[in-house]
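Section 5: illustrative case.
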């Protein structure tokens, strides 16, 4: 039942890539909203650190591996209950140092990014959707990027992967019509100050920053505030949409 205050009491949420950056801010925010949060990350120390801080459940694994997903989603259901909210936040910008033009890119550059940003995200959706459909309730929030709307130079694998995230959000939302109160939305941030920026060279980050009218990087907490609303029962009449959080860069 929506209470108008985005409360998440009694709800179970899983946040992929919850061990640092935007994912950590989302974990903290959803926990403060009342949810029991599964902090899913490849980095065990970070998953433990964040889960301990918020009274959540550390979920350590690689979201591109089905065996890890079976184990991790089994763990959260056993320790907290069925998943009501899935935030697909884990993502990579490029293989480290491989932000190059398409003609210099290698097949491995594409597969690395697509595997995590798209295939892994789909596998996580598949892990929770049967339960959401059976219980006729769920919220899925996919973290896309402004790059998926505009196509950043030297970031083609990333841009294409995030365009895929925006579009598969739309497809999934339509597939779920008539299956209960299940909303699926995406958000498209511009540059947010997190460790992901270390995967890009300084010039690339400067170029992205120069395009933000508000003239600064965004903060993980600012993304988390939007995700909080989209994770709650109060977001009940919007599904399939991509919400902008780009400091004025995208006004469409
Ligand atoms: N920071 C930005 O400027 C920005 C802008 C737009 C969109 N985004 C998107 O926001 C999301 C979070 O970005 P961030 O900046 O916080 O990134 P980050 O690099 O700081 O954190 C990503 C987290 O995902 C985890 N992860 C990576 N691969 C994984 C895997 N295979 N299995 C499980 N966990 C895995 C990492 O261990 C890490 O903790 C990403 O999808 C990113 O593309 C970020």
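Designed sequence:
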């Amino acid at each position: 039942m929506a209470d108008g205050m985005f409360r998440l009491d009694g709800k179970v949420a899983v946040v992929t890539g919850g061990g640092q950056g935007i994912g950590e801010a989302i974990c903290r925010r959803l926990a403060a909203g009342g949810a029991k949060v599964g902090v899913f990350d490849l980095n065990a120390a970070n998953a433990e650190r964040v889960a301990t801080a918020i009274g959540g459940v550390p979920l350590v694994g690689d979201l591109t591996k089905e065996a890890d997903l079976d184990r991790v989603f089994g763990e959260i259901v056993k320790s907290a209950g069925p998943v009501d909210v899935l935030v697909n936040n884990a993502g990579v910008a490029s293989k480290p140092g491989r932000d190059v033009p398409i003609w210099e890119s290698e097949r491995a550059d594409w597969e690395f990014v697509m595997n995590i940003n798209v295939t892994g995200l789909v596998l996580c959706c598949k892990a929770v959707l049967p339960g959401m459909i059976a219980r006729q309730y769920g919220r899925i929030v996919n973290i896309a990027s402004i790059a998926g709307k505009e196509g950043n130079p030297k970031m083609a694998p990333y841009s294409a992967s995030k365009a895929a995230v925006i579009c598969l959000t739309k497809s999934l939302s339509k597939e779920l019509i008539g299956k209960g109160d299940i909303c699926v939305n995406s958000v498209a941030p511009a540059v947010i100050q997190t460790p992901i920026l270390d995967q890009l060279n300084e010039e690339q980050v400067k170029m992205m920053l120069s395009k933000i009218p508000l003239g600064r990087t965004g903060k993980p907490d600012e993304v988390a505030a939007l995700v909080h609303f989209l994770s709650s029962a109060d977001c009940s009449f919007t599904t399939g949409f991509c919400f902008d959080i780009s400091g004025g860069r995208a006004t469409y």
